[in-house]
């Protein structure tokens, strides 16, 4: 009974492959011994007696050892890739067909036999606990299952001797396709960003520098506009971006001579021209009845915030659309003497107002101040003043004190101040609606000499004032915009004062006292404030001429001492220098001069006579001075033209700056001179510049002077930014 049961159990475990292979072996007479030996080895109990197997038989033991390899195939059939579903592979179809029904029916019986064998194994291992037996059975089962799965995969992936076209082959192929697809997706996720990054690097490395170089070329242009009607008289010049390309466009007053000899119109045509900062192309032209004295930008008009450009002539103020040049509004005045000053909102209509200086109709009075609304209407009547001193007209300038009170600085030869509240009240008979404009500063009011007087004396002396300017970095008359942001710093700063032609002082706005006074030769140009050192205090670049020699100096804004000085052959120019803010925190100074005088100061002074000084040098040069190398100048360009006015425009994105000049170009005697507008990119001009050393050779004990490579490397890396 036990033999039949084990035989059926063995046949149930491998119904097809085992039966086919071991059919002759199963017919032997020693079935009991073979099965006993196989079960003993499976239980790891070789030759041991058992209650169910009878006595120990050495012949059975020897016979089982001879057939151990075949028994391993029977008991470990999963490891050899022989499953219950497909065991014969490509064997005889007749055998499979003849036994398939019987073997399938025997599977249920085999399961029952396996349960009985498990009970018998528990009885043979009484010393083992239930948990150990379960672990042993689970380990044996999973090891057999894993090894069978591996071998089955090998057989299915092989030549097909044991595998057919069953479900395992299709599932393996589908799994391989999924794995290949997964690897392809992963590769795509890696390669696509890599290719995009490579393309981006190539764009940055090749295309952007090409566009940058192309832009630098487009920023350098030259255009002839108008005639030099009065020789070297500077025309009105202003900068502002009106076409939305992030570059400040150029606005210029133009005078052209015509052949028309009509007695009522004369032979001159006056206009204001807007030029594109990129190419110099004319954006629009606005014709005027009179010569344009001042051009100011920065206002906005209406709900659409239309950019407004003010064109100021002797008797007319015209506001034009900055984009198209069309008229917006105009105000008729008489004898205008100054630029317009941007004021806070006086009427409470959220529109800033303007103030301008004119000559009064009463000849006994000296100067009048007129208020104009931001929409082009006069506010009240002009307010006239009697100023006893004589000289140049100073201001007007708006100043906001530390207490938040507003005052207007102006004068003729002297500098006076008057409250904006008083000006508005005298013009309209009303007090300003804004509470901030009704304030008075007790400190400033205490400076009045008489309680009945409305004047506050800022400077009054025997020497007339020549220049009055706020101590603001990069301040220039050509950049005097009318927007609130540009005027914020200039209305709260100290002032630089030039008086007596040769004295320079700094006035503190908190108490009107002089910080220091510097004496020099006659100063003919307005000083340029900039940072020569890193103490945070603005220094002043000045120029003065005497006996055919021009001397350039940088004065310390904190103490009044000289930082830097150099002498040049006098170029006979009245053009103010420019200070350009750089990325190092210091300022680079641009100025025009002729050949520098090096090492032979005494001989030069004795050989240059006034008669020779009267002869203008033919070549004038534009120099750049940076505080990092005070003994070196960089010559950017040279020309025979006479520069009459200039301005600096910053390019924030490119970290560059353009230098705009208007020059008078000489022509044959039979024709009048012409005005030439020229734009030059500083970053493009620096690599082409020539290094000029102000000192020759090294003296004993002095540090070694920087080499040309070091200087060129520094200037090539220099960038510019607006403060």
Automatic annotation (TrEMBL):
Acidic residues bias locations = 63-73, 106-120
Query: Record's GO cellular component, any one?
Result: membrane
What ranges does the record list as Basic and acidic residues composition bias?
121-157
* UniProt-listed InterPro entries: Beta-prop_FAM234A_B, FAM234, Integrin_alpha_N
Extract the ranges annotated as region (Disordered): 46-174
Q: Where in the cell is it found?
A: Membrane
Main localization category: membrane
Q: How does it sit in the membrane?
A: Single-pass membrane protein
Describe the location of the FAM234A/B beta-propeller domain by residue ranges: 231-702
- The record lists the membrane-crossing segments as 188-208
Gly residues: compositionally biased ranges: 158-167
Q: Which domain of life is it from?
A: Eukaryota
Q: Does the keyword Membrane apply?
A: yes
Kindly state which keywords UniProt assigns to this record, in alphabetical order: Membrane, Transmembrane, Transmembrane helix
SUPFAM superfamilies assigned: Integrin alpha N-terminal domain
What protein does this entry describe?
Answer: Family with sequence similarity 234 member B
Q: Which gene encodes it?
A: fam234b
